[in-house]
Amino acid sequence: MNTDNTTWSEAYPAVEVQAAEYQRLLGYPRGVVLEGRSRELADWAREWYAAHGRPWIYAREAGSAGTDGALVSIEGLQFHSAALRRRFEQAGAEGAVLAAVSAGPEIEREAQRLWREEKPDEYYFLEVLGSAVVERLTAMTGAHLCAWAEGREMAVLPHDSPGYPGWDIAEQGRLLELLKGAGNLPGNLEALESGALRPKKSLLAVFGLTRHTEGVRRLTELVACESCSLARCQYRRITGEP
To answer: Which of 73, 105, 128, 183 could form a disulfide with 199 if both were Cys (CB 3.0 to 4.6 A apart)?
Structure first.
């Protein structure tokens, strides 16, 4: 891990996707125990990624961030996200952290190979695992930022991303340029003209920062811990969960 006061970069972090998260994304009802062929495929996908996957995380504090009328302004660039603007205004946000996470290109290439070889089951389980890895990396990033912000007497707000409801995915390229402008990412990442990312199992995110911590505690929907899926997080302190 490479980390300082404003930047966090980590190549190949250990990613432990929880069984419940994976099964939810696969479309199984809560509480179902995978058996037979499904269990075999799920175990195979995990083993393949553990051997071949190359995930990474990158985050940095923005030089400036705030609202500008109906827009959110980050380092002089304006973004159209109603949800992010509302969180900034309700929490009195005074800054932001920009983040990028990726499951790496290997899992996408392998899934495409399986599809070409007419192995749809293997393709599906590996494809969904890639989505689960991105969710886990995002949760890990949020947990790290919670600890970092707490040391500065600040609170981290839930993230928002281009492509989420109310934020046009076409703005993804501009956000990626902001991230790349401050240094090299741990892995290759590009935004296509459509706004989609390559590798596709990747995510860009903006986490708001505020010093009005008590106010945020009263607005539970603005507490990052309320929306974090990282089980047994050592920084979880708002919800009372273990």
So the answer is: 105
Architecture of domain 2-227: 3-Layer(aba) Sandwich (3.40)
- Relative orientation angle of helices 120-150 and 105-116, to the nearest 10 degrees: 170
φ, ψ of residue 31 to 5 degrees: the values are 90, -10
d(CA 119, CA 92): 51
Which residues contact residue 180 at a Cβ distance below 8 angstroms, ignoring those fewer than 6 apart? none
Q: Check residues 214 and 40 and name the one with the higher pLDDT.
A: 40
Distance of alpha carbon 1 from alpha carbon 140, whole angstroms: 13
Q: pLDDT band for 5, please (50, 70, 90 cuts).
A: low
Cα 185 from chain centre: 15
Sign of dihedral through CA atoms 220, 224, 228, 234? Answer: negative
